[in-house]
Amino acid sequence: MSRLAVVCGGSRGIGRAVSRLLAERGCRLVVVSRNEDATQATVASLHGAEHVAFSCDVSKEQEVQKTFNTIQKTCGNISYLVNAAGINRDALLLRSKPEDMVSQLHTNLLGTMLTCRAALRSMLHTKGAAIVNIGSVVGLKGNAGQCVYSASKAGLEGFTRSLAKEVASRQIRVNLLVPGFIHTDMTTGLEEQDKLRSIPLGRFGEPEEVAHAVLFLLESPYITGQVLVVDGGLQLAM
Ligand code: NDP
């Protein structure tokens, strides 16, 4: 039986590229995001036929638990979990609205904790199980106008390293992938030319380039608790 991979935030951007690559490599995919139509459309575009879509808000504990219970019942045990669901509500802290602060923390940080917790029991039953969480270079370096988003992503580093220690004895690996600027909906509207000067490779990355690094982490049996930066050298210059 092929490996079952769950990609949260798989309907668009980095998560969709990861879903496509894993499907090409023979995994059965469960694609999760809030928008049902977009999630179904991604599943319909995947190589192979055994994939399924679930509409779920990862920031809501009961939805997450219900979704993962159904995944286990209908699809089997999970081998890979990729947490790519994320939002940003960029603003200087003084202008940040409390509801935007909460939604970023709940989606980016709490959401990842909830999906990991919900998936782990099922992952105990598979060999070579692995989780990749998606952070951000601003979680490592900070960025004015992104205090809350940066905090949510910095939190993922401590969470990932701690969880890696907790589950290593069960041979489950947990790593953090940290992208720089990647062409997706999240970066649409940014003044790209202004940013290019700070990227040593001189360009934004593509979702497919991040997906290859996610695949590398998922398939590397002796790597756990690590942070892999995929940013064209951006953090060298920050
Ligand atoms: P996109 O905005 O293109 O896609 C975000 C995905 O997350 C969508 O599938 C979206 O679907 C889903 N999502 C958002 N909120 C929730 C939620 N509450 N529950 C379930 N799914 C949700 O973003 P990217 O692909 O660019 O980003 C992917 C990850 O990479 C994010 O964590 C982001 O913070 C991180 N990142 C991105 C960078 C970039 O330059 N693009 C740089 C650094 C980090 P839906 O709206 O239907 O729920």
Automatic annotation (TrEMBL):
PANTHER family: 3-OXOACYL-[ACYL-CARRIER-PROTEIN] REDUCTASE, SHORT-CHAIN DEHYDROGENASES/REDUCTASES FAMILY MEMBER. The lineage of its organism: Eukaryota, Metazoa, Chordata, Craniata, Vertebrata. Belongs to the short-chain dehydrogenases/reductases (SDR) family. PROSITE patterns: ADH_SHORT. Pathway: Lipid metabolism; fatty acid biosynthesis. This is 3-ketoacyl-[acyl-carrier-protein] reductase beta subunit. GO terms for cellular component: mitochondrial matrix. InterPro entries: KR_dom, NAD(P)-bd_dom_sf, Sc_DH/Rdtase_CS, SDR_fam. GO terms for biological process: fatty acid biosynthetic process. The gene is cbr4. Its main location: mitochondrion. It is found in: Mitochondrion matrix. One of its GO terms (molecular function) is quinone binding. Residues 3-184 form the Ketoreductase domain. Keywords: Fatty acid biosynthesis, Fatty acid metabolism, Lipid biosynthesis, Lipid metabolism, Mitochondrion, NAD, NADP, Oxidoreductase.
